[in-house]
Structure formats: structure tokens, C-alpha cells
Design a protein that fits this description.
The complex is a heterodimer of chains A (110) and B (114). Chain A is built from no helices and eleven strands. With 110 residues, chain A is an all-beta fold. The relative contact order of chain A is 0.35. In chain A, strands 2, 4, 5, 9, 10 and 11 form a six-stranded mixed sheet that branches. In chain A, strands 1-3-8-7-6 form a five-stranded antiparallel sheet, with no helix packed on it. Chain B has a single domain, classed as Immunoglobulins (Immunoglobulin-like, Sandwich). Chain B is 0% helix and 48% strand. Chain B contains no helices and ten strands. The chains are: A mainly beta (110), B mainly beta (114). At the A-B interface, strand 4, strand 5, strand 9 and strand 10 of A face strand 4, strand 5 and strand 9 of B.
């Protein structure tokens, strides 16, 4: 099945800094999602982005499907951005599941 | 409802007991998924329901795990003869028809097997 790798595994930022999180996947995808897991464990949908670029406030994401990677950009980070960011993909080869990466643990400090 | 709901939010049980976890998907979503999140295994798929089709059970880790979806809406995940390695957060998700669509997750049930 498809493999999903995320980097970096951990990231510490000062408030106001920008960051880029990366997600590499091993096969063509027809579903790719970014989530933020908050301290209470809830998975919050950030982007549904199997291809192209989207923006939502301080967050934006780009998926280059032909090169099998996706990027999540966080600008002007805030302490409330802290948590774990997951990328998850469904391989175009079939199957019904999202395969999750191991996440990026982000901590934003004052 | 506005989102996916799950109950109970926490469940503590003794090894060997059976447990039932419930998921109520977003209204109008015909696809329903169960995942679990554990420290050692990350987030992993368990089972998928779509309408009246046979469920995709390819992620169930053993025959102690089963799930049903009645009336195309609410789903119950049952774990029989629980083991300590079953301790995890069990997450339910739903989407519009088919797994190509965006999945939305519930808050999860934290299961602790003593």
C-alpha cells in the first residue's frame, strides 16, 4: 500500500515565525488531507487537497501530485497552532482508507 | 448533527470483557470509517462502510473486532475479550459517498484495558 512520510517530526517556533511542513507519498493519490490534532485529541480538517494550492487565512497548502509531495505552510504562527499536524492520503491504486503519516509535532512559544 | 459524534468519550474496562463503541456520522454522509490511534502504531484504518455494500474489513486486527452499521447511519464497533494491547483512541469518520471524498472525524473514544 501507499507509504506516507512527514517531516520534520518535531518543530519549535517562536510566535510570529513561518514554517513549512512536508508530506511525501509513495504512489499516486486521489485523496489527500491535512489535519491538526488539538491537545484534546480532536482531528481538525485543514485542507482537502489531492492536487493544486489552497489558502485559508494564515494557512496554505500545495500538493504537487506528479512529484508526490504536499506542503503545509503556516505563517505568523500563534501559540494556538501548537499540536500535531497529520497528512493522510488515499492511494489511487484502490482501497478505501486514508493512510496517515506519523505527524509533525509543532510547539509555538511566546 | 453538526459533526460526527462518538460515545462514550472514555471507557475503562478489565481484560477479557467485551466493549461497544458508538458512532453517529454527519447527517447525509453515506460513508463511515473506523480508525484507531495508539502510541506504537499511529493512526490506522479498521473498517469502512458505504451504503448497503459489504463493508471493507481489511484493517480489523483480529476476529475479536467487529462492527455493524444499522439503517445506514449509526455504527457500533465491538471488541470481544479485550486485551491490554487494545488500549487506544478509537476514531470514527464519515464522508459523502465514497472514500474519494473528504473525511471528517469525531472526537474519539479513549479505551483503556486494565
Amino acid at each position: 500500500g501507499i507509504q506516507v512520510e512527514q517531516s520534520p517530526p518535531d518543530l519549535i517556533l517562536q510566535e510570529g515565525a513561518n514554517s513549512t511542513l512536508r508530506c511525501n507519498f509513495s504512489d499516486s493519490v486521489n485523496n489527500l488531507q491535512w489535519f491538526h490534532q488539538n491537545p484534546w485529541g480532536q482531528l481538525i480538517n485543514l485542507f482537502y487537497i489531492p492536487s493544486g494550492t489552497k489558502q485559508n487565512g494564515r494557512l496554505s497548502a500545495t500538493t504537487v501530485a506528479t512529484e508526490r509531495y504536499s506542503l503545509l505552510y503556516i505563517s505568523s504562527s500563534q501559540t494556538t497552532d501548537s499540536g500535531v499536524y497529520f497528512c493522510a492520503a488515499r492511494g489511487a491504486g484502490g482501497g478505501n482508507k486514508l493512510t496517515f503519516g506519523t505527524g509533525t509535532q509543532l510547539k509555538v512559544e511566546l | 448533527g453538526a459533526g460526527v459524534s462518538q460515545s462514550p468519550s472514555n471507557k475503562v474496562t478489565e481484560k477479557g470483557k467485551d466493549v461497544e463503541l458508538r458512532c453517529d456520522p454527519i447527517s447525509g454522509h453515506t460513508a463511515l470509517y473506523w480508525y484507531r490511534q495508539s502510541l506504537g502504531q499511529g493512526l490506522e484504518f479498521l473498517i469502512y462502510f458505504q451504503g448497503n455494500s459489504a463493508p471493507d474489513k481489511s484493517g480489523l486486527p483480529s476476529d475479536r473486532f467487529s462492527a455493524e452499521r444499522t439503517g445506514g447511519s449509526v455504527s457500533t464497533l465491538t471488541i470481544q475479550r479485550t486485551q491490554q494491547e487494545d488500549s487506544a483512541v478509537y476514531l470514527c469518520a464519515s464522508s459523502l459517498v465514497g472514500s474519494l471524498n473528504e473525511q471528517f472525524f469525531g472526537p474519539g473514544t479513549r479505551l483503556t484495558v486494565l
